[in-house]
Amino acid sequence: MTPIYQTSTYVQPALGKHQGFEYARTRNPTRDALERNVAALEGATHGFAYASGLAATEAILKLLSAGDQVICGENVYGGTHRLMTHVLERLGLEFRFVDTRDLANIEGAITGATKMIFVETPTNPMMHLTDLAAAATLARSREVLLVVDNTFATPVFQRPIDLGAELVVHSTTKYLNGHSDMVGGVVLTSRDDLAEQLAFIQNAAGAVPGPLDCWLTLRGTKTLPLRMGQHDRSGRRIAQWLTEHAAVERVYYPGLPDHPQHELARRQMSGFGGMISFELGSLERARSVVEGTRLFALAESLGGVESLIGHPATMTHASVPRAMREAMGLTDGLVRISVGIEDTEDLIEDLDRALAR
């Protein structure tokens, strides 16, 4: 295993000379190893680790200047929406939220001030997809950056840089780490000019992870393909089972043949993962189910070896205005589950017991 270089500063052999490391905010050997590791997984040439997924997203947005516009998918993580609208808009950035399932919505929103297109695919929690190859072609034609949050799919199931994205971001807290014992983020790119700017921002702003968190994520990536395989197998099985349950009104999962973007998912993803959302029709029913499971733990986050269940409207997306949530189908009756790696039939039995309530 890569050592944990639990150090903040480094001895220099002479004035003005060092051995590649001066101060741990700038570089740390354990962090270097993580950045190279995830860059290789994504097919990128540069990686930059941060203290959280939101810190990684903020670093990307700091590539821009006051007056620049970002076109963002309307169904992004609630924390991303909050960062954009409550923090960065006050500093002069402009954000336009559109349904990126239809490329015409992105194209119609582009103005002379547009510098970036930011998408999640699949989205959290509605499981909407963006055609990455088409979006990359559009972005290049308009000379804007395409940024993809690849947290849900991971590089095991989706490789945005291969499809034309300039920047990829992950919350490493989720699947890359996979054990719910750290918080972090990472940004990947193959463009040297963007890498140079990100390295400066990473050092200047200082939102870097500690070496132990980097080490924990490195440990997680060693089992990433094995874990994702189990998440995917159980996810497909549970999603299909939910579609057949009388208490469930609708299931959102790109691996289902009746998902409106199933063919796109098959084209740009090699697996569908373990994130599933389903509609129960009311807050009362949703509360009964999320409070009624035993194996699925009621908690924030996702992507760990343990199964989690949550209520997006009051948890992950509570900061998104109600009207915007409801317009995209994120109702008070929506439940989101992160399927872990436990026995699939045990998880189905747990959900069946909760739904019977």
Can you tag this structure with a few keywords?
7-stranded mixed sheet; alpha/beta; 2 domains; 357 residues; globular; 5-stranded mixed sheet; Aspartate Aminotransferase, domain 1; Aspartate Aminotransferase, domain 2; 37% helix
Short description:
With 357 residues, the protein is α/β, with parallel strands linked by helices.
In the CATH hierarchy, the third-tier topology of the largest domain is known as: Aspartate Aminotransferase, domain 2
Helicity, in percent?
25-40%
Mean pLDDT over all positions: 97
User: What order do the SSEs take from the amino end to the carboxyl end, as H and E?
Assistant: HEHEHEHEHEHEEHHHEHEHEEHEH
| Radius of gyration computed on alpha carbons | 20 Å
Description:
Helix content is 37%, strand content 15%. With 357 residues, the protein is α/β, with parallel strands linked by helices. It folds into two domains: 29-221, Aspartate Aminotransferase, domain 2 (3-Layer(aba) Sandwich), CATH 3.40.640; 224-355, Aspartate Aminotransferase, domain 1, CATH 3.90.1150.10. The protein has a seven-stranded mixed β-sheet with strand order 1-7-6-5-4-2-3, with helices on both faces. The radius of gyration is 20 Å and the shape is globular. The N and C termini lie far apart (47 Å). The mean pLDDT is 97.
